[in-house]
From TrEMBL:
Keywords: DNA-binding, Repressor, Transcription, Transcription regulation
Annotated GO MF terms: DNA binding; DNA-binding transcription factor activity
Designated name of the protein: HTH-type transcriptional regulator CueR
PROSITE patterns recorded: HTH_MERR_2
Pfam families tied to this protein: MerR_1 (PF13411)
Highest taxon in the source lineage: Bacteria
Domain HTH merR-type: 4-59
Lineage: Bacteria, Bacillati, Bacillota, Bacilli, Lactobacillales
Entries under SMART domains matching the protein: HTH_MERR (SM00422)
Length: 59
């Protein structure tokens, strides 16, 4: 089982805001791997790599 990261963990790791990650979710660019019963978004390595690519391409 792969590790799941909270949206806050991903934001800190990639130096992005949680608002930006939610925006990408809203625009169907990067969907969370799962959403917990508490409504928290959880991201896996695949989603993190996609966010890194988007960040790189924006630069």
């Amino acid at each position: 089982m792969s590790r799941k990261y909270s949206i806050g963990d991903v934001a800190r790791k990639l130096n992005m805001t949680t608002h930006t990650i939610r925006f990408y979710d809203q625009k169907d660019l990067v969907k969370p791997e799962s959403i917990g019963e508490n409504g928290y978004r959880y991201y896996g390595e695949e989603q993190i790599q996609r966010l890194e690519l988007i960040n790189y391409l924006r630069g």
